[in-house]
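Exercise: predict the structure of this protein bound to adenosine-5'-diphosphate.
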Amino acid sequence: MQQFSNSDSGDIVLAIAQRIVENRVHLSDIDGLIGDGDHGVNMAKGFGIAAERLRGKARPLSASLTVLGDVLMTEIGGSMGPLYGVMFSGFAESLNDVVEIDAAAFERMLRTGLAEVQSIGDAKVGDKTLIDSYAPALEAFSAATAKGDGFATALDALIAGAEKGRDSTIELVAKIGRASRLGERSRGVLDPGAASCAIILRSLAEGAKAKLRVVP
Ligand code: ADP
Ligand code: MG
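Solution:
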């Protein structure tokens, strides 16, 4: 079985925050096509503040997720602060009492985060939001473990599912959020939230993969 330790994995969250900050211009460019062009700016602000708080301090993964969730909830504008805030806080709560994170604990974490985002945002698959990246990613992870794949292989499936889901938003018409005001004109470009969600999930999966240990 493959697993990784909660206690020394807080640096995964710093890496996620850094990836978002690096993608600031890219994410705002995408939002410029169907929104108000602030997605990268909003995201880089919150994730940048979190990165400063996380840098140089070793923490458990669950504790770093709590820091990120709290910062997002209180310090970013736009739709994304509360949505990603509850997602990361949900991840944190689900891992709080977990010492060794195996594929089952990781899946519970992902399910909790998705339920939290949907409980406040009410978006479903097909609405052209971050859910179109998140839900297929979780489904791909879950399907991989269900057919007996190891944790590392399931994490690869998660990344592929997130990116395929992100790309599926090109063909969709936005049903929720600012872009929904454009109706049919929102078709033909990526959803910015789906793009940032795919970056987050890839970075989370790669961070977890790098820490995996095989245990009997
Ligand atoms: P704003 O729309 O306020 O300018 P951002 O540009 O930061 O905020 O974020 C836009 C993204 O937010 C969209 O691309 C979409 O993925 C996501 N989003 C908006 N509303 C919801 C919702 N209710 N549920 C899930 N995601 C949403
Ligand atoms: Mg915007």
